[in-house]
Write a structure and sequence with these properties.
Rossmann fold, 159 residues, flat, alpha/beta, 6 strands, single chain, 5 helices
């Protein structure tokens, strides 16, 4: 699904509704960091569709191993060696799964603190649990099966 999404919608994802990105990164994990992380492969697929997108590495900050589902300003950091690729840029942030959104939001804070002008989160998976009230409400609203032809950026056909 991820490869298909990047092939079908890579141009829209990389255009970011008129703000062409200059860099791409992924939400790191305390367990699998760097190129070993599954989202690193997804970020590389996005790079394949974005002319001149520079890869950026995020590191774990002081609260990087904190297991709470909370937005934490110091969960992630942009290491000094990557900062020049972030300043003033539109950065695509690839997340492999969305549970609460706290990690993606924490990563966005780190990117913005490092000087990113815009951050677009590209989430390729969402865990839904029927035993969580907010998830149950979302599941109840779903009327149609997943349609890979619908663009995640435009909400309809690309273009």
């Amino acid at each position: 699904m991820v490869r298909g999404t990047s092939i079908l919608h890579g141009e829209c994802i990389c255009s970011g509704r008129g703000r062409a990105p200059g860099a791409v990164t992924f939400v790191p994990s305390a367990r699998a960091q760097g190129p070993a992380h599954p989202a690193a492969l997804l970020a590389r697929q996005v790079v394949d569709h974005g002319d001149g997108l520079l890869p950026v590495g995020l590191g774990l900050g002081a609260s990087g191993t904190d297991g709470r589902r909370a937005v934490l300003r110091d969960r992630f950091v942009v290491p000094d060696r990557w900062r020049d690729r972030v300043v003033g840029q539109h950065v695509i942030l690839v997340e492999d799964a969305w549970l609460s959104g706290a990690k993606a939001q924490s990563a966005t804070i780190a990117l913005r603190d490092a000087g990113a002008r815009w951050v677009t989160i590209l989430c390729v998976g969402r865990w839904l649990r029927n035993d969580w009230p907010d998830h149950r409400a979302l599941i109840a609203r779903l009327r149609a099966p997943y349609d890979p032809q619908l663009c995640p950026v435009a909400g309809g056909p690309c273009g």
